[in-house]
Amino acid sequence: MKIQLAAFLVTAAFALPAAAADSYTVDPAHTYPNFEINHLGLSTMHGRFGATTGKITLDTAAKSGSIEITIDATSIDTGHAKRDAHLKSEEFFNIGKFPTLSYKATKLKFDGDKLSGADGELTLLGVTRPVSLAITAFNCKPHPMTKKPMCGANATAAIKRSDYGLSTYVPAVGDEVTIIIEVEAAKD
Question: Where do the H-state alpha helices sit in the chain?
């Protein structure tokens, strides 16, 4: 009887469907969160963060998954060292107290098998608020050089920085910030 029970349990375990979610690690060398903001009504200023980590899980069959991204606020780069130092100060990103920004989403949107959006939460300066990403150019395929499975996409969103307490110079320097993230991730 014990042998039959053991055989049944082993058979039942193999009969259970395997988890279809694939896990991906964000490639920091090919992932760049960028931002655009109006400057004094004169021009659109651009900047980026150079250090990003994260995990993405995708289950295209179940149309589900998750995104967890951490951005190193100290890696801000606007192409001007003095402005970067000011943006790192307590008046803006306050990197001494808040060295990272994060985005977490557990509700992904799909158009067929293509990831098309994500509803999640952005944490900036210790404030967490909902942010929806629009995702375009989503594609998964073997990397042409390493042959390892990779996925990539572009994600965009608009936020009001004052919603996060980042209100220095509003409205002279725009309150609305456009976020553009190019992301690539390798399958684990």
Answer: 2-15, 81-88
Tokens for 20, please give them: 């279809």
CA distances from 54 to 57, 168, 174 (A): 10, 29, 29
- The closest of 30, 32, 28, 47 to 177, measured between CA atoms, is 47
Q: For residue 84, give every residue at least 6 positions away whose Cβ sits within 8 Å of its Cβ, in sequence order, or none.
A: 76, 77, 78
In angstroms, the Cα distances linking 174 to 43, 91, 132, 160, 165 are 10, 15, 20, 9, 14
Note the pLDDT tens digit of each residue in 24-49. Answer: 999 999 999 999 999 999 999 999 99
Q: Which of 172, 171, 155 is nearest to 117 (CA)?
A: 155
Total-model pTM: 0.85
Q: Is residue 9 part of a domain?
A: no
Range of the domain at 183: 19-187
Token representation of residue 7: 């055989």
Calculate Rg over the CA atoms of the chain: 21
In a domain, 83, yes or no: yes
